[in-house]
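Entry for the shared binder. Reason: the reviewer on the internal report wants the predicted structure included alongside the sequence.
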Amino acid sequence: MQQISDVNVISQNLIPTPVEIKSDLPLGSGAAETVIWGRESVKRILDRKDPRIFVVVGPCSIHDITAAREYAERLKALADRVCDNMFLVMRVYFEKPRTTVGWKGLINDPDMDDSFKVEKGLILAREFFLHLAKIGLPAGTEALDPIMPQYLSDLWTWTAIGARTAESQTHRELASGLSTPVAFKNGTDGGLGVAMNGLKSASRPHHFLGINQQGQTSVFHTSGNPYGHIVLRGGGGQHNYDSVNVARSEQQLQQAGFPANLVVDCSHGNSDKDPVLQRLVFGDCINQIAEGNRSIVGLMLESNLNWGNQLIPDDLTTLKYGVSITDACIDWNTTVEIIESAHQTLQQVFA
């Protein structure tokens, strides 16, 4: 007889269950305090109980843990300096959605050679999230693979559902059960409809299949996530960070019965993927806040130790240190200048 199952499957490899990974790399009380504090801080900002804005800032993707740790230590010091009016969350993206094909992120391919040592990637990712929590730096990420949160989400402060997955029912169901505030990005065409529908869906209860901590297939029943919000990231050749588009987004949220909570992504479509323009987008949004806007509660920056990006070379020893291998990022000095300038402006606003 002809083969019926797994016709196009080459192999299957078991990996440890979530509980096994967590038993080797437990959360711990100190790290848990950072996670709880981080989540509550973002929730208070979304509830308008805290007048600060939160800023999700960090590499487009992390491929070098050593460089990422250096970045984190610098960011923690910066976060402490600006904490009176800005709450900094490190952008930690270990999974990358691909429009067609390409490197899928450190969890899936930690050695960047198509060997796909997922167990190694999971351990590296959890170790890094634990490091951030232990030094008191909140972490934000994108939920891409629906199984991955069982391994890592106890260390997340803030979660994004990306432009490519905001329309996915699987990710909307996942978002309804996450313990973090969840942001839906507008679609790649720049329209807000997909994100709005995602927000509505994630706020409602759901039943869906997933794996539990023991790796068993389970039916999950969620209550809905009350802390959903929207990320404006541009798209379709259009920007949507300006005051007119922000006002339109406010109206759509209010008409749908949701709080006017907006996060502006200063990269991607809003900067035409040109890192030089991130400063201008960030500055424009800070000026809107200074002029009285209160719907912009957060901003996102793609930032690394060094400027730009690079292709993955055949010889990985020639990789430039602290330079993105996905989207181009601003460098550390520019990051400091942007955030400290905004901090000074906001001091006058909140004085």
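Summary line for the report: The first strand starts at residue 53 and ends at 58.
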